[in-house]
């Protein structure tokens, strides 16, 4: 029997409203530091077509690194498995913006979900075009996945990152020295910063993630990626989706997820649910504090885990 | 409909018999270097109680690091989640015997499946006893899981490691300096080396792993660990079970697994199968070359993946 | 009795002319890669006012990192020992352009003679001005030290570095993220690249270094820096002047020196000599191959070493 | 004119008696932790044969890592420059007991003055003998240098280190894995720990260091090492003698020195003085707090610095 998701969502929203430790809002992007930390939203799109929401599920937030999932999907569509010549598939063991590993491994980032890897992905998506072309393509893709043309980029956030993103500039220049960034750094970062500045609500983000729950199919029947590729993106989310807390997230929550410093997390239960949570306060690892707790509670209540027998939770 | 496992096993055995690159047998443990690389075995214990085998599935081999799964299970039974004060749960991003991370993180190993972490686990399992007590307990546990009292320790292999295990002695002494190894180093390593020297066949290993496929239950109905703990061990196997190739294994195979330098791999499909493969030749990451390929082929043919919808493969 | 420097110089020039392994010309700055490797020059300015030269001692070359000595002298004049809040004084143990240490030590470079440290020094020398002001000041300072107004900047080399200096851009942006570069990165690097592109002959460089042999005094009697500061700059040259081969240079040659990838080395024997050698081929550590050998031979023949009793060599 | 050393010594002793921050006595060797921190001694042996002392200059202390200088001298006598195939000559950039660099550089320690390097030196000095043979040889050598047969080993300190020296056991085992320690680890460390437990007073230590001030000659006229080797040992002391504070010591004091965690420092002014200072409290870098200050003050008052013109200070 399926769990009563409505009751579970109510419990989660109540629990999070009462939370005392809400983490700390990211301060390194000035525009993000302004967000009110007393917010929490959740949305679940199920495989049978329902959409359940709770809390501030219609408030837009900066998806930031969650965008790396969609950007990776696009880049794999462009260059296929050749991408893996330029980006690894291993957890990094380091923080999201670490540059140490890049030096040791000759400019090849460990995986596409740390910043360095996502910059290589942006370089692929940029191709020989202008940033606005690549950004437009990304936006159309996310709108298609969501089925909602109102998804947009917050230009203030993009400008804020462009003005202060020194670490990302360092990463991009460093990889350019190894020829693993192939287009001018400012164009690549222009693409990257705009992609990170996409604004979505939990409702929209849960809808956007449905193809990863449906083995690569859009709910409209179209194929976004092959089943094999969908599984592999899920695998990467599980092993690498939460920076140096990925192992802990897999251990405690047990489902693939990708977090962003805007406080959003997209989590996928293959065959069952695409889940978006959001709360702007971050924990020490840079992942949403309440968002992580909400997913842990949801997994416990529903029995959803990629590591449990399929009978459980059905 | 279930896949025709018999046909798939036949295909895998034939495929592996024809393989040209069989990897390289581990040379750093002299006793292991003597093993004939032209061997391959596979065994699958299914959730519905069948046992399918192929190739050299009854030949015993040194399970080596696969034993870390059973040792972890025992240690969690002794000290529960307090274990995590002394061992992390994150992929290491380094080789199995790296000491770099230990210095940076003050003697706390990244996870229980790298050597340093497994030595801490052995320290817990040793308690205040003599190594033969802890080793006896471990052997009884593995025999119980397997339902086969013939499982034994290869004393030559244990002696070989004791005589040459300088890196492990370095790791243990290093953690002793941080008081994260609490018993005399030679006793802890005595326990550890004997645990690694347990000899099992694929048939026995697949049987031993059934509790992880059955959400913590022994097929005889007894509970080995709680469902939550079983899932978490599976999660650790997925994120950390193949050293610095764990991400790649999750990406390509998509199921939790733990490898050993003896050439064995135990892999778990929750709710469906406990799989053991063995071939002594290793790839560059120190994991069984043919064993990894066999699991990848098996996953492709069966559709088994923790990242695919549950309907697939059933 | 003083050694017969003329005879020694003749021997060195002959020896270097016959050398078979001349190293490899730096290729990462395109403009430098064009230089003919079959060149070698040497000049010695002595404390008693003589100037001895040999080989291609009047051919100009790009002084590159040798400029870091003059830039450090200027910066210490501007901000004094406050500089050491932003730059360390320890050998780095890493290559000249490593970024690893910067991450571990929060954007504080190990010493002013690795690239990261020299970029901080350039940031200090830039102050709130335009690069051309800081570059003009540097050029005037070097001309004053040399007593030769013909010293100039090679604009082609400066442009070449600006176009391809991705690693330096990475370093500068990375330190900007830690607020240890305080002015816009392109202005700081503009200053830095032009300083590196100063062109001097061995004759000019040996003259420029005289203040470091004379305990901080210009031969014209003026004080360039205090005696204490001159000694400290010499100490830094000894411990940090040859990147990760500094210890070996101190061991084999035994006098303070600073090398550049243009193939020049400035070496100081306190109270006795300011020496410039140049040969464009570099060894594996990025220091002039023949230049290092020439200094080793010179030190052996003259007995000059800061580690020998003062009686020796007089 | 020579400085008035007697007056300077008086000033230094008075200054150190009034010091408030005396550092912290090393606690990781239990036997050393018992030493009274309110002690300070100094002794200067001059090239013209005088011996000046001040403070607790006749109190014995554990010379610890200062012994690495004498051990290196012995090992070079045994195997000559072949030693450098097994030990580097570069500053490490890391703490004295770091193991990180060993992993990156395949078991070759950076220099003979960090613990790992000194363990390789002890392995050389051990040869195929029993530790008591090598220890006896070392003791005879130090007594010869000192001209004092009362120099002895403190067995309590040696036993204390043997019982708790886990990090050194880790280092030795780690290098044994790379075959850069060639004899049984317990024998090598037995040699090493006894060498470190040599007890000397400042008076004795200053006498022992005279050969390094005299370009390799014993004051009795005998040659201990060649001039070239004496200079090179001095060079290593300057670049590597104070762990990761070596650069700072060279910068501030400007003369070669080797410190030990017992609080002693041996410093050499080539051609002029062999200096021993001792105070048990250590600074953050593990070097004697007052000892370092005393040497800095001495250098300032005397003008002694290898980086100043020879006329100064004479």
Automatic annotation (TrEMBL), chains A, B, C, D:
Q: Which HAMAP family match?
A: Glutaminase (MF_00313)
Q: Identify the EC number(s).
A: 3.5.1.2
EC class of the enzyme, as a word: hydrolase
Spell out the NCBIfam families in the cross-references: Gln_ase, PRK00971.1-2
Q: What's the name of the protein?
A: Glutaminase
Record-linked SUPFAM superfamilies: beta-lactamase/transpeptidase-like (SSF56601)
Kindly state which reaction or reactions the protein catalyses. L-glutamine + H2O = L-glutamate + NH4(+)
Which keywords describe this protein according to UniProt?
Acetylation, Hydrolase
Summary of subunit composition and partner proteins: Homotetramer.
The family line of this record is:
Belongs to the glutaminase family.
Q: Where does substrate bind?
A: 65, 115, 161, 168, 192, 243, 261
**A Pfam family per the record:** Glutaminase
């Amino acid at each position: 029997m399926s769990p009563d998701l409505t009751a579970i969502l109510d419990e989660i929203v109540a629990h999070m409203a009462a939370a005392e430790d809400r983490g700390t809002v990211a301060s390194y992007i000035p525009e993000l530091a302004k967000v009110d930390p007393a917010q929490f939203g959740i949305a679940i799109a199920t495989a049978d077509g329902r959409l359940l929401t709770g809390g501030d599920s219609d408030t837009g937030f900066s998806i930031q690194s969650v965008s790396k999932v969609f950007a990776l999907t696009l880049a794999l569509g462009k260059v296929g498995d050749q991408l893996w010549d330029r980006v690894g598939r291993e957890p990094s063991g380091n923080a999201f913006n670490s540059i140490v590993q890049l030096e040791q491994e000759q400019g090849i980032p460990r995986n596409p979900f740390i910043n360095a890897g996502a910059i290589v992905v942006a370089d692929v998506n940029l191709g020989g075009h202008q940033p606005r072309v690549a950004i437009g393509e990304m936006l159309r893709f996310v709108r298609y996945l969501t089925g909602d043309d109102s998804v947009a980029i917050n230009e203030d956030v993009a400008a804020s990152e462009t003005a202060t993103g020194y670490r990302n500039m360092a990463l991009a220049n460093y990889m350019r020295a190894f020829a693993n960034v192939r287009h001018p750094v400012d164009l690549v970062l222009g693409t990257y910063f705009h992609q990170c500045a996409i604004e979505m609500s939990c409702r929209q983000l849960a809808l956007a993630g449905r193809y990863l729950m449906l083995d690569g199919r859009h709910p409209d029947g179209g194929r976004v990626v092959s089943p094999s590729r969908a599984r592999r993106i899920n695998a990467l989310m599980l092993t690498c989706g939460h920076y140096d807390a990925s192992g802990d997230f897999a251990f405690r929550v047990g489902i693939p997820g990708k977090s962003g410093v805007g406080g959003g997390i997209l989590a996928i239960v293959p065959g069952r649910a695409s889940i978006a949570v959001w709360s702007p306060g971050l924990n020490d690892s840079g992942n949403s504090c309440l968002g992580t707790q909400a997913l842990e509670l949801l997994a416990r209540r529903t029995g959803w885990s990629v590591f449990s027998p399929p009978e459980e939770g059905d």
